[in-house]
Design brief:
single chain; alpha+beta; Phosphorylase Kinase, domain 1; D-amino Acid Aminotransferase, Chain A, domain 1; seven-stranded antiparallel sheet; five-stranded antiparallel sheet; 6 helices; 14 strands; binds adenosine-5'-triphosphate
């Protein structure tokens, strides 16, 4: 097999809000994911281009996947390629946005009229149906299994327990660079043999990360809430992660 670094991409088969997906000429079981410079919020209504975001999110995501692998949690990640892309295993994405929350924030705070920033007694997992035309609605396990039929009961249990395990590892990873992992969104995919694997990306676009000392936000809320210095903050996350973990992974 050719080395992943020399893989070549074939035609683009999907363009999302944050990534472009291509085939890999040398291996049909892999895909080539290019991280875009676009930032979107409010289900795509708010949009912007920020030159260099794709590179940062590829670098951060890749480091996180490599850290998880080192700590016993595999993912779709295979190798980095170029400056803003990675080769991953191709999976059938389970259309669930799996949100893990350690702190009350964002849509949860709004929906239940709770103040942002309160630590939860235990991490909780929220499921959303991944469907832009419905604005990714919040659903419960029974709706996922018996109405949408996107996973079996056993699979939903497995996904939630994997998400909580990943949460423990990510909390430690980010605390190591002085960041509190407030909440984050995961996507899981399935191989042909039914095995479930962590997919998509883990980046400041998909996590809330607050500076432990100052409370400063270093994630996409800077864009959603017009706080400014979006990429400067993503860059702090990357530089600190790379300094602390880069050589050991
Ligand atoms: N390993 C993988 N195999 C197949 N598809 C994947 C894999 N990892 C991520 N994807 C999918 O790649 C797509 C492109 O990512 P991107 O983040 O740009 O999408 P998005 O615009 O956020 O969301 P949407 O899924 O609604 O298009 C997503 O649909 C995601 O589920
Ligand atoms: Mg996405």
């Amino acid at each position: 097999m050719a080395h992943p670094a020399s893989f070549t991409k074939t035609e683009m088969f999907y363009e999302g809000k944050a990534k472009r997906l291509f085939g890999v000429k040398e291996d049909a079981s892999l895909i080539y994911q290019e991280f875009k410079d676009s930032l979107t919020a409010l289900n795509g209504i708010k949009k912007s281009e920020m030159s260099g975001k794709g590179i940062l999110n590829r670098d951060i995501s890749s480091l996180v996947f490599r850290y998880l692998k080192k700590h016993g949690q595999s993912s779709h990640w295979v190798a980095d390629i170029g400056v803003n892309a990675m080769v991953t295993k191709k999976v059938k994405i389970i259309p669930l946005e799996v949100v893990v929350r350690n702190v009350v924030a964002g849509s949860l705070a709004k929906k239940l009229n709770q103040e942002e920033g309160r630590d939860l007694e235990k991490a909780i997992v929220d499921l959303h149906f991944k469907d832009d035309s419905l604005s990714d609605p919040f659903i419960n396990d029974d709706q996922a299994v018996h109405v949408l039929k996107v996973a079996t009961e056993v699979e939903v249990k497995k996904i939630k327990s994997m998400a909580l395990e990943i949460n423990e590892k990510l909390k430690t990873l980010f605390l190591g660079i002085g960041l509190k992992l407030v909440d984050f969104k995961l996507e899981f995919g399935k191989f042909e043999n039914g095995e479930i694997v962590l997919a998509d990306e883990i980046s400041p676009d998909t996590c809330r990360l607050w500076d432990v000392k100052t409370g400063e936000k270093r994630d996409k809320d800077r864009f959603r809430r017009d706080l400014g210095d979006v990429l400067e903050n993503y860059r702090i996350v990357w530089n600190d992660l790379n300094k602390k973990y880069g050589t050991g992974l």
